[in-house]
Amino acid sequence: MSTVAVIDYGMGNLRSVSKALEHVAPDLNVVVTDDADTIRGAERIVFPGVGAMRDCMAELERHNLSELVKEVATDRPFLGICLGMQLLLDRSEENEGTAGLGILPGEVKQFPNPLIDADDANGERLKIPHMGWNQVAQQIDHPMWSEIADQSRFYFVHSYYAEPKTPDEIAASSRYGFDFTCALYRDNIFATQFHPEKSQHAGLQLLKNFTQWNGRS
Amino acid sequence: MSLAKRIIPCLDVDQGRVVKGVQFVDIRDAGDPVEVARRYDDEGADEITFLDITASHEGRDTIVHVVEQVASQVFIPLTVGGGIREVADVRRMLNAGADKVAINTAAVFNPEFVREASERFGSQCIVVAVDAKRVSAEGEPLRWEIFTHGGRKPTGIDAIEWSQKMVEYGAGEILLTSMDRDGTKQGFNLPLNKAVSEAVSVPLIASGGVGNLQHLADGVLKGGADAVLAASIFHFAEYTVGEAKAFMAEQGIEVRL
Hints:
The complex is a heterodimer of chains A (217) and B (257).
Chain A: E1 3-7, H1 15-24, E2 29-33, H2 36-41, E3 44-47, H3 53-62, H4 66-72, E4 78-81, H5 83-86, E5 91-92, E6 98-99, E7 106-110, E8 115-116, E9 125-126, E10 130-135, E11 137-138, E12 153-158, E13 160-164, E14 170-175, E15 179-186, E16 189-192, H6 200-212
Parallel strand pairs in A: 1-2, 1-3, 3-4, 4-16, 5-7
Antiparallel strand pairs in A: 5-6, 7-13, 8-9, 10-12, 11-14, 14-15, 15-16
Chain B: E1 6-14, E2 17-18, H1 33-43, E3 48-52, H2 61-71, E4 78-81, H3 87-96, E5 100-103, H4 105-109, H5 111-121, E6 126-134, E7 144-148, E8 153-158, H6 159-168, E9 173-178, H7 190-199, E10 204-207, H8 213-221, E11 227-230, H9 232-235, H10 241-250
Helix pairs in contact in B: 1-2, 8-10
C-alpha cells in the first residue's frame, strides 16, 4: 500500500489534513509522523504548518526534522501547505526576520497594515489576516490543477505571503489589495498558501491530484 | 475578483445534540450535529460554528466527539465556542479537528488567556466573542458595553475599546453579538457592527438578530461585516445557505457560489 507521510512537528491541527487525504484516497496509507524512517519510507510527503514561522523552525529543529525535510523534498511528490509553503523559502519577515529552509529561492513578506484595496473606489481598508475564500488564478498547466477550474475559490488564513525570487516557480496567484503568489512549484514540489483540506470540493480535488501525481510537472 | 464575504451557520449543541429543532425534511436525525453540518456544507456554507451550551461540566466532552466526527466528513473551517476557559480546552478542540475556537466569558475574566492562547496556537485560530449591549439612553451618543452570562451581567467595559484590546492580545477575528438584537429577528445592530469593524484591523463576524436575507446583506453593506453568522433562519429551514448567497450576490456582494 502506498504511504503518504504527514510530517508532524507539533505545529497545529494535522487531523484535518490526514482525514481529507483518507477521504479522497481510501486505499492510501496516511500516517501522521515525526519518525525519520517512516518519513523516508513514504512515497509522498505532506508538509503542513500553522502559527508563527520562528516557532515552526524551532519545532522542526527540536524534532531533528529540518535536514530530513530538505532531503525528502528532492526526490518524491512533496506538498507544502500554508506555513509548510512559507518554510520552503529562504527567509521570512516574521519575528524580526526568520531563516527558512531555503529549498525554494524567495522571501516571505508581511501584508502592509493598513492594506488599502486598490480595486475599491473608496480605497477601503482590507482586514488582516487575509481570511476566507479567495479566487486562485492558475499560472501554469500542472497535474495538480487537474479537474480544478481556473479561478476556483480556496480557503486562506494568513498575514504573510510568499515572494519567490523568480516567476518560474509561481503556480498560482491570488488578489488581496494586490496580486500575490499563492502556490509555488518546482520539480517534485508543489506548495500552497491556502488550505486544500479546508477548501471543500476544489481542495479535495487538489489533494486527490496529489495522491495521483508522479512528481513531475 | 477578491475575497468573498462569508456566511456562517451556527449550531447550538447541548450534550452532543443540536437544539433549536432543525426541520430539514430529508435529514434523518435533525438532532445529529454531523448530519446537520453535512447539510450546511452541501448548501455551500463557508464555515460552520458550533456553540456548546452544555451546562454540566461532565457533558462537555461530548462536543469533542462531535467535532471529531464532523471534521472527518466536512472539509470547511470549523469553529467551536462555549466553555473554552484554558489553554488545555483550546488544544483539545484543535486536536479534535476544530480550526478556530471562540473565547467569550473567559476573555472578560482573564484577558491574558487570549494572549496565552494566541501565542501558543497562533492568532488565526483565536476568535474572541464579544457580547455587547447598548447602554446609552435615547438622544445620547451611542455606547455599548460588554455583558456576560447571556446578556444579564454588565461589566462596565466599553465594547469598542474591548474589541481593540482583544486584537492587541492576539484575537485573529471578532465575533460580535448584539445582545439587544439576539433572538429578535429584527436584523443586526448595524451601528454597533460598523463602529467595531472600523475600530479593529481583523475580520469581523456579525451575529445576533437575523430574521431574513436582507438582514444578512445589510450586515455586510451597512454594518461593515466580513462574515455574517446566523442560527435560526437556517435551523428552521426558512432559507438555505444557497438562497442566502444568491440573494447577497444579487445585491452586489462577493460570495462563494
